[in-house]
Structure formats: C-alpha cells, structure tokens
Specification:
The chain has about 350 residues and is of the alpha/beta class. The protein has helices at about 30-40, 45-55, 60-70, 75-85, 105-125, 140-155, 175-185, 200-210, 215-230, 235, 245-250, 250-270, 280-285, 300-310, 325-335, 340-355; strands spanning about 20-25, 90-95, 130, 135, 160-165, 190-195, 240-245, 290, 315. A six-stranded parallel beta sheet has the order 4-5-6-7-8-9. The chain has a three-stranded parallel beta sheet with strand order 1-2-3. The longest helix has 21 residues, at about 105-125. The two termini are about 30 Å apart.
C-alpha cells in the first residue's frame, strides 16, 4: 500500500454515506501454492503459470513476498488491511487459476473442496466482513455442479468464481452446461475471473511482459466472455448473470464494433458457429453481465461503463492483495457522481447481485 495518509483516514461503518463492499478479493491456500510450485518444478505447468506463480510463489521481491503473505491470511491481518482502507466487506475467492490447471482430477477436487471449506470457516468467523464465492474443479463439470449446490446450500456462499480457461478449454463447450444449470438453479452469479492465456495464445505476450494483469488477463477473459455470449449462453439461460472484473475486460469499449461485425458475420453466414442471437451483444451486457472496477480505479472508465451498461451493473472491487492501494479508495470516494449512484457502486449493487 502506498502511503497517502495526508488525505485522512478511511473509515469503515458507512458514516460517509455507504458501505464499501469489495467484490474481487483473493486468498490462497498453502497446499494450492505448493501444487503450483510442484507443477512448475516437474515441467507440468503451462507458460502462464510459470510466469505468474513462478513469480508470486518464489520471487524474493517485495511485491511477491507481501502479496503471498496476504493471500494466505484469512484472519486478523486481512481484517486490519480492510480496516486501514475502509473496506467494510470483502467478497473472497480462491486466487487464479485455482485448481483448473491440475491434471489429476481427484487432486483438483480435493484441493478445491478443502479451499471452499477453509473459506466457509473464515466467513463463519467474520460474518460481517467476509462473503464467500466457491471455487470449482471445472475439469469435472458434474462434480462442479454438485459443488455449486454445496457452496450455496451448505457453505453459505453467494456465487462461484471460475478463472477463465481450463487447460485451454472454454466454458462455451457444451460439456460445461451442468455448471451453468446449477448456477441458475441456485440463482447465483458466475464471476469469470482472469487467468493467464493458454500456451496457444500467450506466445508474443510473454517475452514482452504483457501476459498477466497488465493485458494478457484481459484479452483472455474478454474473449472468453464473448465466446459465451456468441454461443447464446444467455438465450439458453436468460436469468444467468456473469460478472467480470477490470471494467468488463474491455468489452464495454468495444460494444459498437462487436455488434456491427457480429451482425455482419451472422448475415453473411461466414462462420458456422456464429448463429443469430435473440439480443444484441450490447443488450446482453445490459441484462446479463455485471462489471467490477478491480484494478481499474479510474473514473472515466467507470462512468463510461455506467453509461453503456447502466449504473446498476457496475460494482466496486479492490483486487486485494494484488492492488492494495488506499489512494485508489480515496479516488473512488471522490468520483464526481450523485450520492445515490456512488452508493450503488460501492454497496447497493453488490448487495443486490450477490443477494447479501
Ligand atoms: C494479478 C492480478 C494476479 C489479478 C491475480 O491473481 C489477479 C497480478 C493471480 O497482478 O499479477 O487476480 N487481478 O485480478 O487483477
Ligand atoms: Mn483478481
């Protein structure tokens, strides 16, 4: 956290007109980090994992060591960091890529369910501060559907997070349908969180250092959401809500061109997979997609998204511990928008869409 104490304290409790609910906050379990390191050591990790977790789990740099410490804490240290930045409640999820890269499905399921149990325990200990989202071993869609139900009914979680591709496969593959069906049955959102692009995409980004949060995450995840929209996921599940971070992974800014070219593609029957949809992509963004400003504490982008998607669909996120910055909370507090709109951004939209 950069020191911005000159601007005064950030307090929890809503005295300034709203609670701050941060909606894309990460934790890790020790066994997951150990598995990442083992995969890297044994040559089973893809290039993205070598880049991302080779850094966070093994670099002696200050950034990596403090982030790793904070990821592993679901107790007093995290609460103290939330207090210090005025975060009333955090929606927590197992950090990316979760267990999705694991080749051994039984190991993936065991680590995912233990992570869910550990998160549920922390939420039980801090019920007014922590809100849980489940993690899934998407390698096994039927198991994952059962885990969606367990997370909702037994663990009290409010949604699930999937970290983009699973070993190069995307959720538009029909085999993942049970996961969507389970989410709709529970009335819970999917948070489609970034992962590093698979080896088939990461090539030119890697050497330039563009593979991770700086850009590769967004390319991978924005494309993933487009794959889902264009396969007609929201025609199949009109009540499904998908959340994405980082101001919509660039899709809001692209909407005009996306719709123009999508409709041109449909009319010309250029691609077998590109079928007519009931709505335009812009309309789905206004009925089935929610965005958070994780990593994007930038008023122009936030106001643009509120304008094109509706102010009920844009929510606050810090992306703790990867972007733990008090000055960003100050900047968001200072945004030039009506008090009611700001309360929606920080509090009311999260309460509504996560059903808190
Ligand atoms: C980073 C950023 C890593 C985000 C993350 O999970 C993550 C990063 C491993 O800065 O390397 O969730 N993020 O969402 O921006
Ligand atoms: Mn994140």
């Amino acid at each position: 956290m950069t020191d911005e104490s000159t601007r005064g304290e950030l307090k929890t409790g809503g005295g300034h007109g709203y609670l701050r609910i941060a909606t894309e906050e990460a934790f890790a379990t020790r066994e997951l980090v150990e598995v990442f390191l083992r995969m890297i050591r044994e040559g089973q990790a893809d290039k993205g994992m070598v880049s991302l977790w080779g850094f966070y789990a093994a670099s002696p740099s200050q950034r990596a060591t403090t982030i790793l410490e904070r990821l592993l804490d679901l107790g007093e240290r995290r609460i103290a960091d939330m207090d210090a930045t005025g975060i009333d409640r955090a929606v927590l999820a197992l950090t990316s890529p979760g267990v999705q890269p694991l080749r051994d499905h039984d190991e993936a399921k065991a680590i995912a369910s233990r992570a869910n149990d550990q998160l549920a325990e922390a939420c039980g200990k801090y019920p007014d501060r922590f809100i849980g989202m489940g993690t899934l071993a998407t390698q096994d869609p039927e198991w994952s559907a059962r885990e969606v139900h367990r997370c909702a009914r037994e663990l009290g979680f409010k949604g699930v997070q999937i970290n983009s591709h699973t070993q190069g496969e995307y959720l538009d593959d029909p085999k993942y349908d049970p996961i969507f069906r389970a989410l709709v049955e529970e009335g819970q959102p999917l948070y489609l969180h970034p992962a590093t692009p698979p080896d088939s995409m990461i090539g030119p980004m890697l050497e330039a250092g563009l593979d991770g949060a700086i850009f590769g995450f967004g390319v991978e995840t924005g494309m993933h959401l487009l794959l889902l929209i264009t396969i007609g996921i929201f025609d199949r599940y009109p009540d499904l809500q998908i959340m994405v971070g980082h101001m919509g992974e660039a899709l809001p800014y692209w909407l005009y061109r996306l719709d123009y070219m999508h409709q041109a593609g449909v009319r010309s029957k250029r691609y077998e997979r590109m079928k007519p949809l009931r709505k335009t992509i812009a309309e789905y963004m206004r009925s089935n997609v929610l965005v958070t400003n994780s990593g994007m504490a930038w008023e122009p982008a936030i106001r643009f998204c509120q304008h094109v998607m509706g102010e009920d669909r844009v929510m606050y996120a810090m992306d703790y511990p990867y972007q733990y910055e008090a000055r960003e909370v100050h900047a968001m507090d200072a945004m030039d928008m009506p008090a009611e709109t700001k309360k929606k951004f920080f509090q009311a939209n999260a309460e509504h869409w996560f059903k808190l």
